[in-house]
Amino acid sequence: MLRAVLDKNLKHWEDCLPHVEFAYNHATHSSTKTCPFQIVYGYIPRAPIDLFALDAADAPHIDAAAHVDHMITLHEQTQQNIAAANAKYQVAGSKGRKHVTFEPGDMVWLHLRKDRFPTLRRSKLMPRAAGPFKVLTKINDNAYILDLPAEFGVSTSFNVADLKPYVGEDEELPSRTTSVSEGEDDEDINYNTSTSTP
Q1: Which member of 42, 91, 128, 150 has the lowest number of beta carbons within 10 Å of its beta carbon?
Q2: Cβ contact 42:70 at 8 Å
Q3: Burial of 55 (0-12, 13-18, 19+ CB in 10 A)
Q4: Whole-angstrom distance, CA of residue 45 vs CA of residue 25
Q5: Which domains are assigned to the chain?
Q6: Taking the model in full, what pTM does it have?
Q7: Alpha helix (H) ranges present in the chain?
Q8: At CA 67, angle to CA 61 and CA 70, rounded to 5?
Q9: Are 111 and 192 in contact, with CB atoms under 8 Å apart?
């Protein structure tokens, strides 16, 4: 929003910040179905001056109990809206993904990410996976500890997104060196597993 408002006047960002803040808090959000101002204050201010504190003599008198009930109802409705939005996002994000879990003793291929295995990913022609390695411990459905050789020099716990089931001796190493286009990022590789973090 700041970028759109400032355009080329970058030095005036501090002057624009209050206006952008008011506009953001005044806008209805898709998840909550209301604006942040209404969630916090119980009403939608028409202008910034509506947020200024009034003297006790000038302040409107309202029924405190009614106001509390209104805020409680508003917050409950907001929580329901957020939960519904999260469920919708979860369904959309899970389409096409296969939920995979492993048990101690299972053999898996390990995806070699560039940031975690820089020496093993110096070239685009080097394998993008290694293994098979044995699963030693299941931390939860998303995190596992592997029997990794010491020369790898990294933590032995991995997210399920970096693991692929080992089928057998006839299976080829999933190097991804020929099936992935040049310049493709690690994040583009999908083993069709759940990608939530441990």
Answers
A1: 150
A2: yes
A3: exposed
A4: 10
A5: 2-52+65-94 (no CATH), 107-188 (2.30.30)
A6: 0.47
A7: 2-6, 13-26, 36-41, 64-94
A8: 150
A9: no
The rounded distance, in Å, linking the Cα atoms of 39 and 51 is 14
Measured CA distances, 56 to 45, 60, 113, 120, 193 (Å): 19, 8, 62, 69, 59
The pair of structure tokens assigned to 140 is 């939860």
- DSSP state, 195? -
At residue 173 the predicted structure's pLDDT band, cuts being 50, 70 and 90, is: low
Alpha carbon 68 to chain centroid distance?
Answer: 34
pLDDT of residue 188: 44
Q: What is the largest CA-CA distance in the chain?
A: 84
Residue 110's beta-bridge partner residues? 130, 163
Amino acid identity at 176:
R
Amino acid at 87: A
Name the average pLDDT for the chain.
80
pLDDT tens digits along 35-65: 999 898 888 888 888 777 756 565 666 777 8
Query: Which tokens is 117 given?
Result: 């295995």
